[in-house]
Specification:
Two copies of one chain form a homodimer. By secondary structure, chain A is α+β, with helices and mostly antiparallel strands. Chain A has eight helices and eleven strands. Chain A binds a DNA duplex through helix 1 and helix 4.
DNA sequence: CAGTGGTCTAGACCACCAA
DNA sequence: TGGTGGTCTAGACCACTGC
């Protein structure tokens, strides 16, 4: 059969006689078929062919569409699932990941109260927006978010409180161009995690983040908001979040009061 | 063919007419074949049939031994590889993971110097053992390590320095029974990471760890060792490490000076 | 060259879910 | 009951390693 020869060609290079859809990479590097399929699926996710929360076509359908076996599609989807880009549900289908669902809420928040140390839910925190302004991005923010100096940016400051005690003071920076119309009112009114709002209102879906942690002393402002003495030790968490297109779109500088909470991390 | 019937039986329950090796779990829960194979391989790893750094039998050999297809063995090994219990090397074989190799050194240390912020190697740190004593485990340590109160424990204190500046002060607690003969001399003489010593000298291999991070103020002792003022903010990292048998065997309380270093964490 | 892990296929059956 | 993802098989060929 020549079907195998076709498969091999697909493996070795981006074929000219391609079946329908093709990545534009001119990279001559070897890439397995399932990686190519994965890239094609990601493109469809990026273009919005399937939106967050929706089902994507079944493995059989995708196999037919891409003219590969079900097993190859399966391996592609397996990786998308471990990347948290899709969620598989046996008997129902494969769904585009979203921040708007219960079990994925606060996916990036690692703060745990001392109290429910083992067992028990992570207590819901109450949000309070301090302010939300549009300004020209400072140099360091512009560098982190890949903006030109002078570009517009949104600055949000907010606190999170657990049982009345303020625990987190966040300063959030977003590219102004992507978040037109974002205001303190929108933020305050919205129910659910901020990342869910970003997703549904602005089409920005965060897939991963990178954090830098340090211990710092509280300055006057932080001390006031977190109700601690000036100079008290605080956990500084600088988070850079990346969008579906793998571009940095959020810089979040958090100060955590770790007297009754801690930052949990699992190492494997 | 009845070979399929046999497979199904293996899937549904731990069979009485088992092929050679069996897990002892009486749990009636459904478990896929490849999970059973994975459990069997883990048992062989625990009993030392294949030791850290060694090759395990090829997929074909294991398939013959367990009387399943190569694909099933492959899926079992895939999970062991993502669990960091084995390492696959194309063309060479599958190797039992070890802390004694270059690319896995300092697997659990997330501290990164500000300097080489992107690109560049993580600079080697110099170790210095402050002291190493055998004492009766304090209550909190005993609880964390599943010891009886009054059991013997090893307490190690040491520092890590980068380019002459002390950065980390660790207090390490180990069960006395597992680490007979561990002394300050052994620790000082050993070249390579401490976890490699644990592995080669005491047969204790860490597979995962759980950390709790907080910001704290330096007390007098910490201030002296880390050469910071009393009250300076330090990153407190309490790590509980688990052995191959998934039992907690190390409690490590670290204080990190995060002026020129930060704790890096990737969220997915 | 032989042996290893890595990819791909085709087809079977199972577990789960909803209508 | 039919459709989805999940498991398992058998066999082919590819890529990498070391002799």
């Amino acid at each position: 059969m020549d079907s195998n020869a076709l498969r091999v060609m697909q493996c070795r290079m981006a074929p000219a006689t391609a079946p329908r859809e093709e990545a534009q990479d001119a990279a001559p590097a070897f890439s397995p078929l399932y990686q190519q399929i994965k890239a094609l699926i990601i493109r469809s996710l990026q273009t919005g062919e399937w939106r967050p929360g929706e089902v994507i076509p079944s493995e059989m359908e995708l196999a037919a569409r891409f003219k590969v076996s079900q097993g190859t599609v399966r391996k592609a989807i397996d990786e998308l699932a471990t990347d948290n880009r899709v969620v598989r549900r046996q008997g129902k289908g494969t769904f585009v990941a979203t921040h708007s669902e219960q079990h994925t809420q606060y996916r990036f928040l690692r703060l745990v109260p001392d109290a429910l140390d083992s067992g028990g839910e992570v207590g819901r925190m109450s949000r309070r927006v301090v302010d939300c302004r549009r300004v020209r991005a400072p140099a360091d923010v512009a560098r982190a978010l890949d903006l030109k100096s002078g570009d517009s940016a949104v600055q949000i400051r907010r606190t999170l409180s657990a049982s009345g005690q303020p625990v987190v003071l966040d300063e959030i920076w977003l590219p102004g161009g992507l978040f037109k119309g974002l205001s303190a009112e929108r933020l305050s009114q919205y129910r659910g995690p901020m990342y869910a709002l970003f997703e549904t209102e602005f089409g920005v879906h965060m897939i991963r983040a990178s954090e830098k942690l340090r211990a710092v002393a509280a300055d006057a402002a932080a001390a006031q908001w977190l109700e601690v003495p000036v100079g008290a030790p605080l956990l500084s968490v600088e988070r850079l979040s990346y969008s579906y297109e793998n571009k940095p779109v959020e810089l979040r500088r958090g100060l955590y009061h770790t007297e009754a909470h801690y930052y949990r991390n699992e190492l494997n």
